[in-house]
Amino acid sequence: MKATTSRTDGLKDFHNKIVYITGGSSGIGLEIARLMVSKGAHVALFARNPEKLERARNEIMNAKHDSSQKITAIPVDITDMKNVSRNMDEAVKQFGKPDILINCAGIVKADYFENISYEDFDAVMKTNVYGARNMIAALLPSMKGKGGHIVNVSSAAGLMSMFSYTAYGTSKFALVGFSDCLRSEMKLHNIDVSVVCPPEVKTPMNQEEAKTMPPEALAVKGLAGVLKPEYVAKTVVKGILKKKFLIIPGFKCRFLYITQKLSPGWLSRAISDSAIRSAVRKISRTR
Ligand SMILES: NC(=O)c1ccc[n+]([C@@H]2O[C@H](COP(=O)([O-])OP(=O)(O)OC[C@H]3O[C@@H](n4cnc5c(N)ncnc54)[C@H](OP(=O)(O)O)[C@@H]3O)[C@@H](O)[C@H]2O)c1
Fold first, then answer.
1. What are the distances in angstroms from CA 18 to CA 79, 107, 127, 266?
2. Angstrom distance (rounded) from CA 162 to CA 283
């Protein structure tokens, strides 16, 4: 059944808002969905695996504010433009035009560059960059008329370079650039754009990447802090309300980013190289 929406100007709260979330079946996306539901929004979840999606939908039902709230879960592969177009047309017909689109779906591959195949690199770029692009392209015609907010979930790895992230970091830097270019264009349509750059977050993704992440990277990864998905979700919601463009969850991560921004490039690279060198020394002592 179609969800009804109340206001189109400025998103002061989320009551009755229609929120589309990719990657809504797991981790950060699921927590954002839960929080949005608890604030009275109608939420549509998108991801590939239908069973995981249904489990997520049932889970966030408990967070509902009132019985009129709608929650739907639609399987979609964001890398496939035809699949995205078809499913978004159907979602808009059935559920209503989104007030807020949150592009949270993503995948990671953390390894030495020489171990990252063309196919791995391609999959990371197609999901993390083209995925957000495809969703926006499919939904923009419906959002243009009423205004709203687009949120792209990038990463601290989209602001600061990191060992073993030649695929993932490239995709997340690209997503930050894409969001910044999009921001000024969307202003003309009364659509705000935010990009979220969290440090490490405890989710299934970060457990998965640990399987192939080289020890040098593991040794420096926690420097920007480790957060819970619930905390990231709260920061995202606050950021949307304040219409912030760049949302960096966690004090440590913000501090590291500002310090890096203010320092000359050679200095932050020298600090990073020295941290890696000391990690390598530690690793060779324990072998
Ligand atoms: N966890 C971290 O440390 C961390 C840190 C910074 C930024 N991030 C970013 O935060 C976002 C969420 O990450 P997470 O940690 O919450 O990961 P997660 O728990 O692994 O969730 C990823 C979500 O994306 C969906 N997805 C993956 N590929 C897809 C595709 N082709 N089409 C549609 N949906 C797809 C997954 O569902 P299906 O597999 O069923 O499709 C799942 O719902 C990602 O963009 C990630 O890069 C994560």
1. 23, 25, 23, 45
2. 18
The predicted model scores a pTM of 0.94
CA–CA separation, 178 and 172 (whole Å): 10
Residue 225 has pLDDT above 80, yes or no: yes
Closest Cα to atom 21 of ligand 1: 26
Q: Where is 237: in which H helix or E strand?
A: helix 229-241
Tell me, yes or no, if 194 is annotated catalytic.
no
Q: Closest ligand 1 atom, CA of 25?
A: 43
Instruction: Answer for the pair 29, 70: CB distance below 8 angstroms, yes or no.
Output: no
**What's the pLDDT tens digit per position in 124-140?**
999 999 999 999 999 99
The answer to whether residue 154 is catalytic is: yes
Whether residue 77 is predicted with pLDDT greater than 50 in this model: the reply is yes
Q: Which of 168, 171, 179, 194 is catalytic?
A: 168
What is the set of domains in the chain, with CATH numbers? Answer: 18-286 (3.40.50.720)
